[in-house]
Predict the structure.
Amino acid sequence: MTEGQEEAQVSESQIAVHWREEEYYYPPESFVQQANAADPAIFDRFSEENFPDCFKEYSDMLSWDAPWETILDTSNAPFWNWFVGGRLNASYNCVDRHLAARANKAAIIWVPEPESDEPVAITYRDLYHRVNEFAALLRDFGGVKAGDRVTLHMPMVAELPVVMLACARLGVVHSEVFGGFSGNACGTRIADSGSRILITMDGYYRSGTVQDHKVKADEAVAEAHKQGQDVDKVLVWRRHPGQYASQTPMVEGRDFFVDEVIAQYRGQIVEPVSMPAEAPLFLMYTSGTTGRPKGAQHSTGGYLAYVTGTSKYYQDIHPDDTYWCMADIGWITGHSYIVYGPLSLGTTTVIYEGTPNYPDAGRPWRIAERLGVNIFHTSPTAIRMLRKVGPDEPKKYNYHFKHMTTVGEPIEPEVWRWYHEAVGKAEAVIVDTWWQTETGGFLGSSLPALKPMKPGSCGPAVIGIYPAIYDEDGHEVPDGKAGNICIRNPWPGIMQTIWGQPERFLSVYYEKYNKDPDSKDWHAWPYFCGDGAVRAPDGYYRILGRVDDVINVAGHRLGTKELESAALTVPEVAEAAAVPVVDDIRGRAVEMYVSLKPGSPPGDEMAKKVTRAIEVEIGKIARPKNVWIVADMPKTRSGKIMRRVIAAISNFTDTGDVTTLANPEIVEDIRQQVQEAKLAQGEKPKELSETEVEEIKSFGTE
Ligand code: WTA
């Protein structure tokens, strides 16, 4: 059978995706000797027949105030409750419990971006005091109590985990918004979570300049107010206590400098509030297919147990390691694998303020050398960028990693090999970890001492996770065929719900493959990840990317609807469509297509207005690569914009059959306009991989 014939007989999601099988790489013996998980019996312990009891092993890694009675309560399926009856405090687990053995060991080493500034080590004892003092301030000056939500809009400074842990100490639910998001995006999240307090910083360093960050707090408070939520207090940390780095005035009676207020709380100790295991610990907002962001609500006991267990086994963290995850704490990776997992294990976690290639591409390797980092964690985008600007930098520095992680996007095998050989000096084991904001911790990864690495595949499912790949009708697809990857079982790290939108939790993640809406049996509730994937015969998964309207830019999820709503805030814009373009560094970039209301002049100014609107509504990370102002959008007869047609134009791939469109003639006009302009800008059509072509071909067809 030829490939064409084969394709004709299967549904779209079953189209075979062929790629070269990569060779296995085996972990160095020195790694295996010291690994936390080196006994293959672990696979039996976490086998499906031992589910859910297997997760007792993770809960045993925590200190509980009261033991749990029921490991998994499914009575309100699919709103799972883990470790029911148990009580604990997350800040106690990440701080207090390490004091006996490690009080004077560094919990955090903070590295300021200016290289002339020394790294700052914060011992567990220091951290304990800082967390207690800020908890006292939050409680007595902020007036918050267990269950209240507080929004944080903080950059990569040590004060951020201090604030998170202070909230956790009180049972207050923190909601950290990525520092690079705009004031408006922050305001929307304040309103959605119902926060009365915003905690921010005056400024921070990024690529050599001080960003005025406080200005965003004013925008955020105004936007939240517009959406019906008033903020009573804005607590402003100063990057240099005593000196204000922002141009924006402080608002009398609303804005307070933390370094001033905290003076009256010096030395105070706040008893950690004993929280039920199922009390929410934090919200982490993420993009979905509609404009309103989704606040993934994570639990105290289940989440903390899951990130502790996976940090121990998959990140191979020991208390004496120096662990550096270069992600931003404003994303789930930072919450789970900079703050909660590593600190729960009592290790040293490094926090770097700035951009990886500032002032040059040797910076990460100088930090690693200087601090003796032995576990390193980053994203394919950072790896691609460092490889492009400084392929020979790593060998100039005398650092040695035992373990490295990649997270957030698929990694190309050749990029993986550079990471392995150049960055890891062929000494380090690599784990490619696939997971999501919603899942709290890893879903797919190799267990580093026990399974070989395979470039381009995240590996098998992690222990205690049982995936299945289904076609559109819920039939499992055979190995080697693409489909929608789902997790058949609940696990302790899964979000509890979408904050304030339980119906969306059900409809987005469960409705598609639920077998019986009344069932209280977990088997009836496969979790739909929203990713396409293929399983190889060895059980390793290759993640193909999102199957919904989400664009993964540099590992950051951007919803097309969010981008389009932002463009539509420009009064002249009549219609907008966002599409992904394959990008050498960032994986994907965004291109916007807009059509204007009659009488509105097209041109560069208008394109800039659209870009500006996206920066204001979302943030600079979402800035489109190009804004194309077109006469009309290609549409179906029912009026739906055919995003896959314009995506194909942006990527120089085949638009496929357009004859059934309502306005097929527009396709050729747009192609000429866009592709000519791109060629004139010096862009060269790229050779796309088969999976990239598939992604573009099916973009926005859901
Ligand atoms: C993608 C980030 C391939 C995937 C932790 C997922 C990946 C989305 C990988 C979640 C990986 C994450 N290989 N793709 N190792 N890790 N993804 O919520 O599409 O920011 O659904 O969580 O990123 O992104 P999020």
Observations:
- The pocket of WTA is lined by residues 286, 331-333, 407-410, 432-437, 458, 529-531, 543, 545-546, 552, 557 (CB under 6 Å).
- The first helix runs from residue 3 to 8.
- Confidence is low (pLDDT under 50) at residues 1-17.
